[in-house]
UniProtKB/TrEMBL annotation:
<dbReference type="InterPro" id="IPR004722">
    <property type="entry name" value="DHOase"/>
</dbReference>
<dbReference type="InterPro" id="IPR050138">
    <property type="entry name" value="DHOase/Allantoinase_Hydrolase"/>
</dbReference>
<feature type="binding site">
    <location>
        <position position="91"/>
    </location>
    <ligand>
        <name>substrate</name>
    </ligand>
</feature>
<feature type="binding site">
    <location>
        <position position="176"/>
    </location>
    <ligand>
        <name>Zn(2+) 2</name>
    </ligand>
</feature>
<dbReference type="Pfam" id="PF12890">
    <property type="entry name" value="DHOase"/>
</dbReference>
<feature type="binding site">
    <location>
        <position position="306"/>
    </location>
    <ligand>
        <name>substrate</name>
    </ligand>
</feature>
<feature type="binding site">
    <location>
        <position position="149"/>
    </location>
    <ligand>
        <name>Zn(2+) 1</name>
    </ligand>
</feature>
<dbReference type="InterPro" id="IPR032466">
    <property type="entry name" value="Metal_Hydrolase"/>
</dbReference>
<feature type="active site">
    <location>
        <position position="302"/>
    </location>
</feature>
<keyword id="KW-0665">Pyrimidine biosynthesis</keyword>
<comment type="similarity">
    <text>Belongs to the metallo-dependent hydrolases superfamily. DHOase family. Class I DHOase subfamily.</text>
</comment>
<dbReference type="InterPro" id="IPR002195">
    <property type="entry name" value="Dihydroorotase_CS"/>
</dbReference>
<feature type="binding site">
    <location>
        <position position="302"/>
    </location>
    <ligand>
        <name>Zn(2+) 1</name>
    </ligand>
</feature>
<feature type="binding site">
    <location>
        <position position="149"/>
    </location>
    <ligand>
        <name>Zn(2+) 2</name>
    </ligand>
</feature>
<feature type="binding site">
    <location>
        <position position="275"/>
    </location>
    <ligand>
        <name>substrate</name>
    </ligand>
</feature>
<feature type="binding site">
    <location>
        <begin position="59"/>
        <end position="61"/>
    </location>
    <ligand>
        <name>substrate</name>
    </ligand>
</feature>
<dbReference type="InterPro" id="IPR024403">
    <property type="entry name" value="DHOase_cat"/>
</dbReference>
Amino acid sequence: MSAGRLIDPLLRRDEEPATLYVAEGKIVDPANYPKDFPWTKIDAQGLIILPGLIDMHVHLREPGESRKETIKTATMAAAAGGITTVVAMPNTIPPADHPDTIAWIRKKVDKEAVVKVYPTGCITEERLGEKLAPFQSLIQAGAIALTDDGSCVQNARIMRRAMEYASVLGVPILDHCEDTALSDGGVMNEGLWSTLLGLPGWPSIAEELIVSRDILLCEKTGAKIHLQHLTTEGSIRLLRDAKKRGLPVSAEVCPHHIALTESALKEYDPRFKMNPPLRTEKDREALIEALVDGTVEVIASDHAPHALFEKEVEFEKAPFGVVGLETLVAVCLKELYFSKKMDLMDLFAKLTVGPSRVLGLEPPSLRYGSAADLILLDLNASWQVDSTAFFSKGKNTPFEGMHLKGRVVLTMIDGKIVWREKRLVEKQKTV
């Protein structure tokens, strides 16, 4: 792979022009190979070479809801979006609260997945928040983290026990922060727009109370806690204070929460209905500031596909959730890079180094010996979001019709090209 600009957030390396050599699924030093070695060369002129991305918040919908998405379609969408590793949430049917379900997922992944997939296990049985799931068995079966994502453990005593147990086992807890006594019935952010639209509100404090509780429990137990899809200025303030005190707390934000606000719901379009909801402009700015200053170290899509008919109902009846695998990079570039808030190195660290450290995975890198999981990015590619062209079964994107700039044009995993834009096919040659 030659003539590209190489950016490696782990090594803080930015080099142009750069050449990479791949053999036996790894990035290698060509000096250790014969001069006549049959390298496969891909022309990367004018493109950026990056480590493959990690999306640590993805709903694959299997088992149980293949009408919405499958492991095959979701991972194809991930590959097209430059994501080489996805972390699967456990709110499936049945939920991943038993090692047999984890084993089923891993077997299906081995058979059908286009990218690497790591499952998570539930915190509580059936995600009901009442009784802890068998953590050790879930981890032994292959779960790399524990979460009831989509639900929040309301009982602080149970959550404390979960953190204590997880701390002993050395795995992080990923928490969906929502006090349901306050959010119950809410379908959008509580505020001016919910009043104008006559829709039930979901107050910011419903998130912030659980963020505060989790931070206090983290301080008590020493467990690693990761706060999922934060949306409010108050949550960021609490997180920033916790980090200043050296607590092992991390957090993520989603592209839709840094790109959109509650005003997008003015037409009652269910494509903008998500959990947690879009907030205010002040909240959006706080999320971006937290990414810029390092308070938040992860960006994740929270890819939540639904069947088309499920979203084609009245706003209040529609399910929460949006898709995001195939727009993740371009939306982040729009809101963070092209807006001159972050450079490419720091932006892509949120999609590689950040999630790997939270999860204890090998950090994606382009150094010798690393797995050849990499992508080519065309910063100058302009395109319009068209959900009918998505690989994902889910078409419920809030970015439909939006004009974006920057697109992944090739994705490689373990040295194998798993997706590429058609215009690159003719440029590939053997030398």
